[in-house]
Amino acid sequence: MKYVDEYRNPQICRRLVAEIRASASRCYTIMEVCGGQTHGLLMHGIDQELDGVIELLHGPGCPVCVTPAEDIDFAISLCQRERFTVVTFGDMLRVPGTTLSLREARARGGDVRLVYSPLDAVQLAKSDPSREFVFFAVGFETTTPATALAVQQAASLGLENFSMIVAHVRVQPAMEAIMDADACRVEAFLAAGHVCTVNGYASYDRFAERYRVPVVVTGFEPVDLLGGILSCVLQLEQGVAKVENRYERSVHHAGNIEALRVVDETYAICDQPWRGLGKIPNGGLRLRDHWRQFDAAQKFSRVAMPIVEPTPCRSGDVLTGRIRPTECEYFGRECTQDTPLGAPMVSSEGACAAYARHARQRV
Amino acid sequence: MNDEPSLSCPLPDDGRDGEISLAHGEGGRLTRELLRDLLAPLQNEHLVSLPDGATLTASSEQLVFTTDSYVVTPLFFPGGDIGSLAVFGTANDLAVSGARPRWLSLSLIIEERFSKRELARIVASIAQAALTTNVQIVTGDTKVVPRGAADRLFINTAGIGELTLPTPGPGKLEEGDRILVTGPIGQHGLAVLIAREGLGLDPVPVSDSASLWPAVDALRDAGIQVKAMRDATRGGVAAVLHEWADACSQTLVLEAEAIPIRPTCRGACELLGLDPLHIACEGTMVVAVADKEADKALRVLRDVAVSHSAVEIGSVVERRIAPVAIRRSLGQLVPLDEPTGAPLPRIC
Questions:
Q1: Which of B113, B134, B163 is the last residue before a domain boundary?
Q2: Does B346 touch chain A (CB under 8 A)?
Q3: Which residue has the higher pLDDT, A228 or A318?
Q4: What pLDDT is recorded for position A308?
Q5: How far apart (Å, rounded) are the C-alpha atoms in residues B276 and A217?
Q6: Which of A298-307, A315-324, B74-83 is predicted with the least confidence, judged by mean pLDDT?
Q7: DSSP summary character for residue B115
Q8: What pTM did the predictor assign?
Q9: Which of A44, A103, A117 to mutate against chain B (most B CBs within 10 Å)?
Q10: How many distinct structural domains can be found in chain A?
Q11: B-contacting residues of A 218-257, CB under 8 Å?
């Protein structure tokens, strides 16, 4: 299959592993930002293959994991109202809020529906004017163009029964927060390929310079990931810190200009609380005032709730690479995929879920 | 058609001629008409007088008895429908238990206002599937429930088969045994998902829904000592292997390169972020045989239409890192996880 097989080619993978091993004069600590990368690394056993040469820290790039519990609680409260439907991506369904997940709320009679595209939520609203449809807009920059289009489409259709809970997050401020934290061990970043497909990577130039840290944009297949790690190692060996794009088939320097235009028309940057990490300056997006009739928080008078983290989950430590999932005392004991204490064990991009799926038994 | 003299006034039928009404399930004339008209394609000697039970004569001392309910949505999907699925699914449960499927019961739970035309289509499909599988529908039941009490149509079938190929079962798997799969995996679950969500992929994956009995029969005929067989339905191949690994306390190792997946299915899985090993099949089974029998078993399976693309996908090794492990592109063995919860609800 084109665009897949060539990036899983065993010969190329082995050659890259040999090059990384030959190039690294010591063990380097590299953080992959995106949960999709984490799963790729573990699923293909790259972490084992590079054991002792590269220490992989798993980054914050799991949007479902960092969505605040109170946003989930708000979605749950809406889905339980008469004639209300909450529409969401499948990933959000199992993530625990303060007391319930959306799936549990659905089992108790709440109306929660799954879609693959935010535009489907608009179609639902169009097809049933008697109900109020609230789309739960989560995700990094990757998903923002589609949710922005959903708002614009709902506006052009004149829909009055469509709104969104906006919980979008921006990845670069989180990377800055990680670098600013005490005892940060990250020596290089594998930047998230799909975020960069939308955003480009021009904004990383100043980041790499400011923190003296190599940033390499990669995809999610083993050849992409190994190529990215090799680029990091070569930069670290040469003592340089610059931005490289190893995902050329998808990512351009300036990003997707049309998508960025739609996002900029729709959203403004704001400070955003991240689950497990606290408030990150410029870490999120909100609807611009022009679109405020589509903001569920304003439309349905959301009351600010104090942030209560209901479980002893150490997601903050995991999401910033301070501990590996397996170093958490609850991992595989109180916290499993069937009985998750926190979001990283639930989401398909969560680091704890990646270990539970691909690496639990080799711990 | 109904040849009884029409002496009574016709019962009111809501004025909806093309739809099933509650009266069709109330045991009166409409019920009999429904049974006669719609179930006519299923006719065999057991159904002539619509008795309360079927009297059967078995030629084997050991019988296998199974039941399954079908709630798939949508009712029609590429490669099949709820009717054929209800026959193949239950017949396959018998087949992989080593039994020749002989008789099925058929219970329909119909939501009020369900289309008669669609019901006729489904019954025709049931009849066709029964014919292909060489099983008889010998008894049944029909209930009509009020609107909202069921989602259009639910079917239950129970089946009886005659044991012809007893297997020791997965508990007896040992190091060196080989694991075969009878065809490309993941087809059914994806076909249903894509039809349900209207994902508009082209070409669409087509369900593999089919009877596995010819493959089992060929193995029996060739004298192959099958150690374990299982159709890879809900949870897919991964769920079968996890069950087997638990039963035998060994590790089952898969070779990723060897697993047969059609390009349409693979493309859809990549796009949707699904693992084909977790997705249901309805006409594909996993077979474990001793090392020395594997090549012969593959030859035998490949001579049968339903299993003509059978391949070896892995083997049994001493319990190491995980119950089930998979060797991917880098050659590292990585644990293969057990499906947790259904990524795709109501696929069968």
A1: B163
A2: no
A3: A228
A4: 60
A5: 28
A6: A298-307
A7: B
A8: 0.86
A9: A44
A10: 2
A11: 222
CB contact under 8 A, A357 and B337: yes
Global ipTM: 0.80
> SS3 string of chain B?
CCCCCCCCCCCCCCCCCCECCHHHHCCCHHHHHHHHHHCHHHCCHHHCCCCCCCCCCCCCCCEEEEEEEECCCCCEECCEEHHHHHHHHHHHHHHCCCEEEEEEEEEEEEECCCEHHHHHHHHHHHHHHHHHHCCEEEEEEEEEECCCCCCCEEEEEEEEEEECCCCCCHHHCCCCCEEEECCCCCHHHHHHHHHHHCCCCCCCCCCCCCCCHHHHHHHHHCCCCEEEEEECCCCHHHHHHHHHHHHHCCEEEEEHHHCCCCHHHHHHHHHHCCCHHHCCCCCCEEEEECHHHHHHHHHHHHCCHHHCCCEEEEEEECCCCCCEEEECCCCCEEECCCCCCCCCCCCC
Domain contains B13? no
Among B109, B143, B163, identify where a domain stops.
B163
C-alpha pair distances (Å), B97 with each of A39, A292, B62, B161, B227: 37, 61, 12, 9, 11
Per-residue pLDDT tens for A15-26? 999 999 999 999
Locate B205 and state its tokens.
Answer: 């994956």
Averaged pLDDT score across all residues of chain B? 91
B248 Rama class: left (phi>0) / alpha (psi -120 to 50) / beta? alpha
The CATH number of whichever domain residue B148 belongs to comes to: 3.30.1330.10
Considering only CB atoms, B322 lies closest to which of A222, A337, A361, namely A361
Query: CB count, 10 Å around CB of B174?
Result: 14
Minimum Cα–Cα distance from A115: chain B residue: B197
- Are A255 and A225 contacting, i.e. CB atoms less than 8 angstroms apart? no
Is there a single domain that holds both residue A157 and residue A78? yes
- Tell me which chain A residues have a C-beta less than 8 angstroms from the C-beta of B334: 42-45, 358-359
**Is A8–B331 a contact, with Cβ atoms under 8 angstroms apart?**
no
B93-109 per-position pLDDT tens digit = 999 999 999 999 999 99
